[in-house]
């Protein structure tokens, strides 16, 4: 079996979305089945690209240039699914990148198991969104998407704790806040396959946030640091802007993110909470 970091690099260097997720799922199955049998396969080392390979389409625009469409129309709903597909493809690369980028850091193998599992989930999520788009007569690449989603990875390229604070504990936690509203839009439109796909995504994303919180706390413990203070310092350093309520406090709690982690990072420092 190829060392895990080399698998990660191979996924990062694959441009086409469906090919990237197929390779990602194949590698994840190899790693996870070896681990289930009690093996301790090699993590190894890799030379991941600063930017992962991506397909020629979608065209990447700055968020201000991406046309806004209203979710009350089929075009608007297709645009919403397209945006989620784009987020999921980025997430596939983000999870393989944390493996490849930080393979030199001595960590329990369980750290790598978690991100392999998360990458496998994101690969499934991307495929689900592509299936829904294709069912509507569209496809991933049919409309422009946000540039700049890789910024969090670039900013934290040499800081594992910063990466965990910003990617799973801020960006993926935000997904828990907004997904229920999205499910409602598709339920109202009676778009059953999109509802089912988004519900799968919603239920599986909690674990990704929880992996982030688990390993962030692990590293704080290793360095004898206060997790809340460290989290605030890292988010202020690497995340551009305030965290925006309303928060899904129930799912955030399930994922191991307590209120005093995120409320102080809102525009008014949490004085309006409750
Ligand atoms: Fe996902
Ligand atoms: Fe995720």
TrEMBL record:
Residues 38-74 are annotated as: Disordered. It holds the Pfam family DUF455. PANTHER family: 3-OXOACYL-[ACYL-CARRIER-PROTEIN] SYNTHASE-LIKE PROTEIN, SI:CH73-314G15.3. This is Ferritin-like domain-containing protein. It comes from Sulfitobacter indolifex HEL-45.
């Amino acid at each position: 079996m190829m060392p895990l970091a080399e698998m990660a690099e191979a996924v990062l260097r694959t441009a086409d979305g469906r090919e990237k997720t197929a390779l990602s799922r194949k590698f994840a199955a190899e790693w996870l089945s070896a681990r289930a049998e009690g093996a301790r396969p090699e993590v190894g080392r890799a030379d991941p690209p600063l930017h992962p390979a991506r397909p020629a389409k979608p065209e990447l625009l700055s968020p201000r240039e991406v046309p806004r469409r209203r979710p009350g129309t089929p075009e608007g709903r297709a645009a919403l699914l397209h945006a989620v597909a784009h987020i999921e493809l980025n997430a596939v690369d983000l999870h393989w990148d944390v493996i490849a980028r930080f393979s030199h850091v001595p960590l329990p193998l369980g750290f790598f198991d978690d991100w392999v599992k998360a990458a496998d989930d994101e690969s499934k999520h991307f495929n689900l969104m592509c299936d829904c788009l294709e069912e509507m007569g569209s496809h991933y690449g049919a409309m422009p998407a946000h540039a700049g989603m890789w910024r969090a990875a670039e900013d934290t390229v040499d800081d594992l704790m910063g990466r965990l604070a910003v990617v799973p504990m801020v960006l993926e936690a935000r997904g828990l806040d907004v997904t229920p509203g999205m499910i409602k839009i598709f339920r109202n439109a009676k778009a059953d396959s999109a509802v089912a796909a988004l519900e799968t995504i919603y239920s599986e994303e909690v674990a990704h946030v929880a992996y982030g919180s688990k390993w962030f706390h692990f590293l704080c413990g290793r360095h004898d640091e206060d997790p809340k203070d460290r989290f605030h310092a890292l988010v202020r350093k690497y995340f551009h802007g305030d965290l925006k309520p309303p928060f899904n406090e129930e799912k955030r709690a399930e994922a191991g993110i307590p209120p005093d982690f995120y409320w102080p990072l809102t525009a008014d420092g949490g004085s309006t909470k409750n």
